[in-house]
Design a protein that fits this description.
With about 160 residues, the chain is α/β, with parallel strands linked by helices. The protein has one domain: P-loop containing nucleotide triphosphate hydrolases (Rossmann fold), CATH 3.40.50.300. It has helices spanning about 10-25, 40-50, 90-95, 140-155, and strands at about 5-10, 30-35, 65-70, 80-85, 105-110, 120-130, 130-140. The chain has a 7-stranded mixed sheet.
Length: about 160
């Protein structure tokens, strides 16, 4: 079974709120793949996801370091925040040996490394800008269906 949900956001604050709802639904091993143009709100959504996991550390884009692992917050789940923009091949991704099972993971530009990710993941497409953004979530299996069901219920 797969599920889809589209949510409108009219501000960075609302985008973070939506991210917080997503984050509160995540468990270890869940993977969220974010896609969208530069400035579409991928990192803003991730800031909310971290907050939903109870993580109080400031979230910035990992573009130049590729990945940041944030320590567990209130829910006891660490967040692996990856920016795959500069990863040139699936071999390079595999060489990084990311711990997707031990963390809740958010992969910006994840479509570039899709073959190295679990098939059951939440895919998020962001369109627009701060004033008018559409956030489309899609589940691809039972784990991600559970996340979308929790997000739908919380909205």
């Amino acid at each position: 079974m797969s599920d889809q949900l589209t949510i409108a956001s009219d501000s960075p604050l609302r985008t973070r709120e939506i991210g917080s709802i997503i984050g509160a639904a995540l468990t270890r091993g869940d993977v969220v793949v974010l896609s969208g143009e530069l400035g579409a709100g991928k990192t803003t959504l991730t800031q909310g996801i971290a907050r939903g996991l109870g993580i109080v550390d400031h979230v910035t884009s990992p573009t130049f370091v590729v990945a940041r692992e944030m320590p567990p917050g209130g829910l006891g789940i660490p967040l692996l925040h990856v920016d795959a923009y500069r990863i040139a091949s699936i071999q390079e991704w595999d060489d990084l040996d990311m711990d997707l099972d031990g963390n809740a993971s958010v992969v910006e530009w994840g479509e570039q490394v899709a073959d190295g990710l679990p098939s059951d993941r939440v895919t998020v497409q962001l369109h627009g800008s701060d004033d008018s953004r559409e956030i489309s979530l899609k589940a691809t299996g039972p784990r991600s269906d559970r996340v979308l069901a929790a997000v739908r219920e919380a909205l």
